[in-house]
Design brief:
The complex is a heterodimer of chains A (131) and B (334). Chain A contains 5 helices and no strands. With 131 residues, chain A is mainly alpha-helical. Chain A has one domain: Non-ribosomal Peptide Synthetase Peptidyl Carrier Protein, Chain A, CATH 1.10.1200. The longest helix of chain A has 15 residues. Chain A is globular. The relative contact order of chain A is 0.13. The radius of gyration of chain B is 20 Å and the shape is globular. In chain B, the strands form 2 sheets. Chain B has a 4-stranded parallel β-sheet with strand order 3-2-1-7, sandwiched between helices. A 3-stranded antiparallel β-sheet of chain B has the order 4-5-6. Classes of the chains: A mainly alpha (131), B alpha/beta (334). Chains A and B meet through helix 1 and helix 3 of A and strand 6, helix 7, helix 12 and helix 14 of B.
């Protein structure tokens, strides 16, 4: 695969710029002073729960609780990238960074501060014994 | 002691006989129809369903419909013709390209592709695939678009939600138009539409609601893909159809179902799934299938997630008041 690894980040950054125009619940009222965790929570409550935050905890596993599905993950990534002006790398799209509001908040904060974040490392691939 | 594998337990001859009786009684007694219409893609699933229908109803009561459009592989039509010839059934060929153009399917889809690749030209190859590989990593399921140039070089970019949704919504017009076309031929003859979805597709949500999911009966909807391969051998489906890699035949560049959605070889996926259904935990499954417990657990999680995430695809239109108590479980788990 000619994946143009060197250019990938620049292209993603360009795309991210384009994505800022895309739909997200807070696009029209972006508040940079709003704490990260609060902004993420507000987006999730408005976008996925139709404004009803009853019982939602910041450490609830959102996929396990059925609040977001795979399409929701895509929406969430678009929101985080455009609202917080960050670029999320493919290797960072893991439950440890994105599964709860608290984890997302810590992840965004680390990205903004240029600190290392969790990412997956490929395990050695085993032979497909059933093929 | 190792449990016998699915290959040893599954009895293709007996399954075929049971399904033939079921197809015959379902179409004649429950649906009150005179025969069956099957969309032929040149793939193994539709070939098996057409063959079962022939054995159940006789070839004179089965019609195959091939529905090529401009992104289809030419091989699909060639193999559909070969199967129809072998089964001695009528084959109708419907080119869906003009209707899809009229619906704006290509135009709407390509507009989204050009937001990602501004120099994308109509007719260039591209495909959509899932990035995650549950056997190797715990990354979440997100889609990427891959452009394929004339030399076979590939360039991949992760899709954002808006572009993904537009490409999928426009592409799903193909499956829904195929359904519309099948029902034209079915109603014209007072026949039933026999669906070609298998257990992997239906239970994990790899189908289009009211598209390929729209049919009167689903004869292989309870069978793992691995079992369908065995059934195909028993039914003497042409070898080139059995050995053909299952593809979506939806995007301009060919993409296998494994790359597009399942992300694990069918043989491994089905073996883990069957063990799960038998109540085995990740440790036991890993030991039986020579995987690491983490690998087994990740594939199990992926199966559960895909099933849960796509619950709505399998639901009929919801009516008020909600059914209770059986329906409540279904809706709450979705």
């Amino acid at each position: 695969m000619r994946n143009k690894a060197g250019d990938e980040k620049d292209k993603r950054a360009q795309q991210n710029g384009g994505r800022k125009q895309l739909t997200n619940a807070l696009a029209g009222e972006r508040k940079y002073h709003m704490p990260i965790q609060e902004a993420i929570r507000k987006y999730i409550v408005e976008n996925f729960l139709f404004g009803d935050a009853t019982g939602l905890q910041d450490d609830d596993p959102l996929r396990e609780k059925g609040i977001i599905d795979s399409t929701g993950v895509l929406e969430l990534i678009s929101f985080l990238e455009s609202h917080f002006s960050i670029v999320i790398e493919d290797l960072e799209i893991i439950p440890e960074n994105l599964d709860t509001i608290a984890r997302m908040s810590a992840f965004v904060k680390a990205k903004q501060e240029g600190k290392p974040v969790k990412h997956w490392e490929m395990e050695p691939q085993q032979e497909d014994i059933h093929a | 002691m190792r449990k016998p594998s699915m290959h040893q337990v599954f009895n293709a001859e007996q399954t075929s006989a049971e399904l033939e009786r079921w197809i015959r009684s379902s179409i004649q007694q429950r649906l009150k129809k005179r025969g069956a219409v099957v969309g032929l893609s040149g793939g193994i699933d539709s070939s098996v369903v057409a063959s079962l229908c022939c054995r159940a109803l006789g070839p004179q009561r089965v019609v195959g419909i091939a529905m090529p459009e401009k992104d289809s592989s030419p091989e699909s039509l060639t193999l559909a013709r070969r199967l129809a010839q072998q089964l001695n059934i009528e084959l109708a060929i419907e080119d869906l390209t003009p209707a899809l153009e009229g619906l704006g399917a290509y135009h709407r889809r390509d507009a989204a592709v050009r937001r990602i690749f501004p120099d994308y030209r109509e007719g260039q190859g591209f495909k959509i695939t899932l990035q995650s590989r549950p056997l190797e990593s715990n990354t979440l399921n997100v889609f990427q678009i891959t452009r394929v140039d004339e030399q076979g070089g590939e360039e991949s970019v992760r899709l954002n939600y808006a572009d993904y949704a537009q490409i999928v919504a426009a592409s799903n017009m193909k499956q829904r138009l195929r359904m519309t076309t099948l029902y034209f031929h079915a109603e014209q003859r007072n026949y039933a539409v026999a669906g070609t979805g298998n257990k992997n597709e239906i239970q994990l949500g790899f189908f289009v609601k009211y598209g390929d999911g729209g049919s009167d009966l689903a004869p292989i909807g309870h069978l793992y893909k691995s079992q369908i391969f065995q059934l195909a051998e028993f039914l003497r489906i042409p070898g080139e159809i059995i050995s053909r890699k299952p593809t979506t035949d939806t995007y301009p560049a060919e993409v296998t179902q494994e790359d597009f959605f399942f992300r694990v070889a069918f043989s491994t996926l089905d073996a883990i799934w069957e063990e799960m259904e038998n109540g085995r935990d990740a440790e036991t499954i890993a030991q039986r299938l020579q995987l690491s417990p983490q690998q087994a657990q990740r594939v199990m999680n992926d199966i559960k997630q895909k099933h849960t995430n796509t619950q709505y695809l399998r639901l009929p239109p919801l009516t008020f008041p909600p059914p209770a108590p059986e329906g409540r479980d279904e809706e709450q788990s979705g």
